[in-house]
Amino acid sequence: MKEVEGEVQRTTGSGWGEILRGPQGGLTFGLTLLTLSVATESLVITAIMPAIVRDIGGLSLYGFAFSAFFLAGLVSIPIAGWGVDRFGPSAPFGATMAIFLVGTLVAALAPSMPVLVLARGAQGLGAAAQFTISQSTIARAYPPGARVRVLSLMSATWILPSLLGPSLGAAITALLGWRWAFGVILLPAVLATAFTFPRLRRVRPTGTTSSRPAVRRPLQIAVGAGLLITGLTNLSWWGMVLTGAGLVIAIEALVHTLPAGSLRARPGLPAIVTASFFLNLGFYAGASFVPLVLVSVRGTTVFAAGLGIMASTVAWTVGVWFNTQLVDRYARWVLVASFASLLAAGTIGFATAIYGAPLLLAYATLPLAGLSMGICFNTLTLNAMAAASPGAEGFALAGRNLMANLGTAVGTGVGGAAVAASQAASLGIKPGLAVTFGLAAAAALVTAALARRTAPSA
Predict the structure, then answer these.
(1) In degrees, to the nearest 5, what angle opens at C-alpha 81 toward C-alphas 75 and 83?
(2) What is the pLDDT of residues 15-37, one digit of tens each?
(3) Nearest of 14, 285, 261, 248 to residue 152 by alpha carbon
(4) How far apart, in whole angstroms, are the C-alpha atoms of residue 161 and residue 187?
(5) Residue-wise pLDDT tens digits, 43-76
(6) Are 313 and 396 in contact (CB under 8 A)?
(7) CATH code, residues 13-202+258-454
(8) Element (H, E) at 5
(9) In this structure, are residues 242 and 234 in contact, taking their beta carbons and an 8 Å threshold?
């Protein structure tokens, strides 16, 4: 056991054999298969979205096609976290995966962008819960020293979708049409559900120490964030009213949903929750618009844009592996501060492509952002597990994931609003994209500034 900067690191009982053999090995495989299905969805959709817009229109809703996914997830995350604490992981897993599969099918048949946005909301409602369910299961079923290995193994499953997902999605889109690309999402999701559900039934509930979340609070957060984003897409007086109302509605609900002190970034779990918001905003506000920059601004193919996504995602997985080597050697807040700053630098480096910088520079800086995200994201997840009270792992991780999803939704939504406003003002999309990537870099720097507060025992 090693203590660094007030953080107790346990490394005993954490060999690979312990998590890969026997009954626990089956659970490990099921969780990685589940991650594979969610990763495939994320990377395929990001790569083919420009082709979808060209086919059914709705550029003004480009950002909403992403933010709807994460806004809907705000509703399911707290409920899933409480459900795991109270009933065990199998029941919330089965219900939310069914919603995800239905949403994927509707998205494949969507005749217009509004329908696609609604289908993406259903996908998000189901998919967002899976991270909380998986992480809560890891916190409960594995010893502390093994958790980083299970998380790194799950993250490693992103390599296959990152290598094949964007290019496969682009190839299917070119040969058969983008609708058939959703079949690549459905198959692994069905397999993951069938294999993982019986393994999760063996993880028994311990009884919750947290109160049952009122459904209206997560709904209120999603509605408030949605109003905020909608208001920002309209440069008018009523748009300003919607923005202000959405902000008030969302903050009031967050106060009653998150761990006490989260909005003030109080040291410990509250600061972990807040940092998760800015970290995801910093990464996804930029990453979601990478294909739009490459395809619409620089004139590359969808396949070439997919290569950029692949580079970033593979680098994320490499970052997770590095994290297993670094997390017990250095103070975790130092890792978060250092690599969140590198995330900001990588984001700025890619943004130079908007105004004509060499594409080689853009492709070279994307992996920096992915590497940094892999290290920061898993470090904050491990910190949330360490800070959780026994029996309330679902509550702690739900708060962390709720704010992470909110950060992604706000980042993609505000980015989409900036692009739409720029186009509406007859300025083209470049100024809007520049604002979007500037917002992403600033959020990454805020994450770095909060890093010292995120030590679980601070």
Answers:
(1) 100
(2) 666 677 666 777 888 888 888 77
(3) 14
(4) 13
(5) 677 778 888 888 888 777 777 787 788 778 878 8
(6) no
(7) 1.20.1250.20
(8) none
(9) yes
